[in-house]
C-alpha cells in the first residue's frame, strides 16, 4: 500500500448521473413513450461506445458520455458503433476476412 490514493476529479456517481441524464429520455408525450418502450428502435440503444461498449440512444448522448469518460480521446462520430446498422451476420455463412494470419 502506498497510501497515496489519488483524488478523483469526477466521482463515479457524478459520471453515472451525468450519463444517465444524457441517455435517459425523460420527455413525455407520444414520442417519448415510443422512445422509452423501444418499439421503433428494436428494444435497444442505437449507438455503442467503441471504447467501453456503453450504449446511448443518439449521437449527442454518446458525445456527452465520451466527454465524460474519454476526455483524452478525440470524439469521432465515425467510430461510434451503430448497433442498428451493424447486423449480426448469419451464423451459417462463413465470414469473410476474419481469419487473420494462419502462420505458425
Ligand atoms: Zn465509453
What order do the strands of the largest sheet run in, or round the barrel if closed? 2-1-3
Number of helices: 3
Unreliable stretches (pLDDT < 50, length at least 5) are: none
Which molecules are bound besides the chains?
A: zinc ion
Backbone CA Rg: 19 Å
Main β-sheet, in a few words?
A: 3 strands, antiparallel
**Structural class, from helix and strand content?**
mainly alpha
Structural features, described:
- It comes from Flemingia macrophylla.
- Residues 1-45 are annotated as: Disordered.
- This is Zinc finger protein.
- Its main location: cytoplasm.
- Residues 1-11 have a biased composition (Basic residues).
- By secondary structure, the protein is mainly alpha-helical.
- It has a domain at 12-24 and 38-82.
- The chain is built from three helices and three strands; from the N terminus they run ααββαβ.
- The protein has helices at 12-23, 29-37, 59-69; strands at 47-48, 55-56, 81-82.
- Strands 2-1-3 form a three-stranded antiparallel sheet.
- Helix 1 runs antiparallel to helix 3.
- The mean pLDDT is 76.
- Bound molecules: zinc ion.
- Zinc ion binds next to helix 3.
What key phrases describe this protein's structure?
single chain; 104 residues; mainly alpha; three-stranded antiparallel sheet; 3 helices; binds zinc ion
Topology:
Blueprint: H1 12-23, H2 29-37, E1 47-48, E2 55-56, H3 59-69, E3 81-82
Antiparallel strand pairs: 1-2, 1-3
The structure holds zinc ion.
The site of zinc ion has 7 residues, from helix 3.
GO cellular component, one term: nucleus
InterPro entries: MBS1/2-like (IPR045230)
Keywords: Cytoplasm, Nucleus
Amino acid at each position: 500500500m502506498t497510501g497515496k490514493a489519488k483524488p478523483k476529479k469526477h466521482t463515479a456517481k457524478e459520471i453515472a448521473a451525468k450519463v444517465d441524464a444524457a441517455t435517459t429520455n425523460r420527455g413525455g408525450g407520444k414520442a417519448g413513450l415510443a422512445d422509452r418502450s423501444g418499439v421503433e428502435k428494436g428494444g435497444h440503444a442505437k449507438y455503442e461506445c467503441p471504447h467501453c461498449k456503453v450504449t446511448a440512444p443518439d449521437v449527442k448522448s454518446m458525445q456527452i458520455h465520451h466527454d465524460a469518460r474519454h476526455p483524452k480521446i478525440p470524439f469521432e462520430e465515425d467510430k461510434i458503433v451503430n448497433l442498428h446498422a451493424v447486423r449480426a451476420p448469419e451464423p451459417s455463412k462463413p465470414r469473410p476476412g476474419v481469419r487473420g494470419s494462419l502462420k505458425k
